[in-house]
């Protein structure tokens, strides 16, 4: 905790998807460490709730409603930030949504909806705020992928595609900015106790369960709190870690796919309990 408070005090960070879950926990933890914040979320009520939990006397907080799946909205947000500061110490591309469907049952609209937010939101946020990040003495670009950015799971073709893409994008930037003032981290959370399953879209057999049932099933597999996730992410960011694993389940899955890089599907297909 001392590392986080010391390192982030007085710095400026932008966070997407700050309305709840990991994004809210990151905002609260950074605010406690006297870090100035630029927050955005698509949900005005949730974003207002996050802002109400922050100490505005400790550090400045600016919030804006932004649809991270809309390129113009992301760039407009970045433009507003640029009007008020000449540099940004960090950007955490955290906004994300879920979509469950076997590929044959998936719709192009839902697939695109997820990709626009989970992948293009990261790319557009990075492109829009990169000029400010590179002006900081030590800038931090933190892209939230997932452990599903390392392992393929039935009914998650869209989510896997986006999170694998975020991983590839981040690792390319790690090479491009090696030896510069910009540090690029890719975050791979395991099961985090957020509302992503409740708000996810579904099609086909993956949509049999309603939102409450999906959330109940997900919470049984989610072992890490958003608050704990925020601590791990921020410690890793401060240390300039390129890959940040969040949760013992993320670590375990990483080890598993190292051992069985092309045959792990025999296990994941059965764990999914979906008809073949």
CATH fold name of one domain: Rossmann fold
Adjacency order of strands in the biggest sheet: 3-2-1-4-6-7-9
Task: Give the ordered list of helices and strands.
Answer: HEHEHEHEEHHEHEEHHEHH
How many E-type strands?
Answer: 9
Low-confidence stretches: none
How would you sum up the major sheet? 7 strands, parallel
SS element count, helices: 11
CATH class term of one domain: Alpha Beta
Helix content: 40-55%
Strand content: 5-15%
| End-to-end gap | 47 Å
Output the structural class. Answer: alpha/beta
Mean pLDDT: 94
CATH homologous superfamily heading of one domain: NAD(P)-binding Rossmann-like Domain
CATH architecture of one domain: 3-Layer(aba) Sandwich
Rounded Rg: 18 Å
Write the layout of secondary structure elements.
Layout: H1 2-8, E1 12-15, H2 21-32, E2 36-41, H3 44-52, E3 61-65, H4 71-84, E4 90-93, E5 99-100, H5 108-118, H6 120-133, E6 139-144, H7 157-176, E7 182-189, E8 201-202, H8 211-221, H9 226-238, E9 243-246, H10 248-259, H11 265-271
Parallel strand pairs: 1-2, 1-4, 2-3, 4-6, 5-8, 6-7, 7-9
Helix pairs in contact: 1-9, 2-9, 4-6, 5-7
Task: Describe the model.
The chain is an alpha/beta fold. The protein has a domain of 189 residues: Rossmann fold. It has eleven helices and nine strands. The strands form two sheets. The chain has a seven-stranded parallel sheet with strand order 3-2-1-4-6-7-9, sandwiched between helices. A two-stranded parallel sheet has the order 5-8. β6, α7 and β7 form a beta-alpha-beta unit. α5 runs parallel beside α7. The termini are far apart. The model has no long low-confidence stretch (mean pLDDT 94).
